[in-house]
Design brief:
CATH superfamily of the largest domain: Fructose-1,6-Bisphosphatase, subunit A, domain 1
Number of strands: 15
Radius of gyration: 21 Å
CATH class of the largest domain: Alpha Beta
Helix content: 25-40%
Order of helices and strands: HHEEHEEEEEEEEEHEHEHEEH
CATH topology of the largest domain: Fructose-1,6-Bisphosphatase, Chain A, domain 1
Shape: globular
Largest sheet: 8 strands, mixed
Bound molecules: 2,5-anhydro-1,6-di-O-phosphono-D-glucitol, manganese (II) ion
Number of helices: 7
Strand content: 15-25%
CATH architecture of the largest domain: 2-Layer Sandwich
């Protein structure tokens, strides 16, 4: 073959080992014991939900009833998109058949959804954000799904899932699906962070990056600067700092999963602080911030509320919100330093007044 006949881009897909998600989970746990089998099956079910959602999204503009609003509101008072409701139901129906999950809790449901037929054996709870970045759905921009798995503790006889109100260290697995130019699934079961790309021709998620590590510092800061006048002074101090120093660049997509994925790959920090209207910020702990914090720590980064490690936060309720500062170690520390400086100043001012 002459150079002119040679394809410009070599086809490398067959060079790969083609590690599938379920095989990867078993490899990571180096075991075939019951728990390893369960985790592998759980991840397989999440992958199935992701494929079903991805299939609908890829043709959403052509399918009757895929885009737009349902007309209803969720428990957070946000208008529900048809894709939010669809994806919420996909996870339920996929896990109904699993036998592994007794309860599912999501952004779109005020209370957990129980699957009574699974409850005597289903030892796990799936907590999820079925569509993250809903405002991007109708304009065909990147969106995601976020998931977290916890072991059920106790019998939950009262049916209010109070065992879920524990800190983020209780997660045994977490991850997200990114519906972008390709569909990716990124997960951790506490043995590093690994990403998979959906090969639509095979219908399988194939390993694309193993043991992802975030740089200790990166150039990106990701936050909604439209909220500048609603932030506390310490956050404004930080933004003034990045505006006045070389080497920073802003990226904000309106979908946490997309912004997080960029920062995980390139380094930097995503911030959703408290605002005047929402003093605890917008993001929900159990199915947005805590799963991503679990991944970030596994990748060598950090997640903080500004005053506390995010994985230490115990939620008061299923839909509790917390401020979120997440990303490269040094960048998270820089944001925290502005918060600490302002806190010290107000303490000193109080003391000098008394
Ligand atoms: P969701 O679509 O699940 O409600 O989440 C939207 C979240 C998150 O994805 C994003 O980072 C943030 O809302 C954007 O909020 P603003 O529009 O206030 O910037
Ligand atoms: Mn979300
Ligand atoms: Mn959502």
């Amino acid at each position: 073959m002459t150079d002119i006949d040679r394809p410009l881009v070599e086809e490398h897909s067959l060079d790969r080992d083609c590690t599938t998600l379920s095989r990867h989970v078993l490899q990571q746990l180096q075991s075939f014991n019951a728990e390893a089998q369960d985790l592998s099956a759980l991840m397989n079910r999440i992958a199935l939900a992701a494929k079903i959602i991805s299939r609908r999204l890829s043709r959403a503009g052509l399918v009757e009833g895929a885009l737009g609003f349902t007309g209803g509101m969720n428990v957070q008072g946000e208008s529900v998109k048809k894709m939010d409701a669809y994806a919420n139901d996909v996870f339920i129906s996929v896990f109904k058949q699993s036998g592994l999950v007794c309860r599912l809790a999501s952004e779109e449901m005020e209370k957990p959804y129980y699957i009574p037929e699974n409850c005597p054996i289903g030892r796990y709870t799936l907590i999820y954000d079925p569509i993250d970045g809903s405002s991007n759905v109708d304009i065909n921009l990147n969106i995601g799904s976020i998931f977290s798995i916890r072991k059920q503790e106790g019998d939950d006889i009262d049916g209010n899932a109070s065992d879920l109100l524990q800190n983020g260290h209780k997660q045994i697995a977490a991850g997200y699906v990114l519906y972008g130019p390709s569909t990716m699934l990124v997960y951790s079961i506490g043995t590093g962070v690994h990403s998979f790309t959906l090969d639509p021709s095979l219908g399988e998620f194939i390993l694309s990056n193993e043991n992802i590590k975030i740089p200790d510092h990166g150039p990106i800061y990701s936050m909604n600067e439209g909220n500048f006048w609603q932030w506390e002074e310490s956050i404004r101090d930080y933004i003034r700092y990045v505006h006045r120093h070389e080497g920073y660049t802003a990226r904000y997509s309106g979908a946490l999963v997309g912004d997080f994925h960029r920062i995980l790959s390139q380094g930097g920090v995503f911030i959703y602080p408290g605002t005047v209207k929402k003093p605890e910020g917008k993001l929900r702990l159990l199915y947005e911030s805590a799963p991503l914090a679990f991944l970030m720590e596994q990748a060598g980064g950090r997640a903080s509320t500004g005053t506390q490690d995010l994985l230490e936060v115990v939620p008061e309720a299923l839909h509790t919100r917390t401020p979120l500062i997440i990303g490269s170690k040094e960048d998270v520390a820089l944001v925290e330093s502005f918060i600490q400086d302002r806190a010290r100043e107000s303490k000193e001012a109080l003391i000098s007044r008394s």
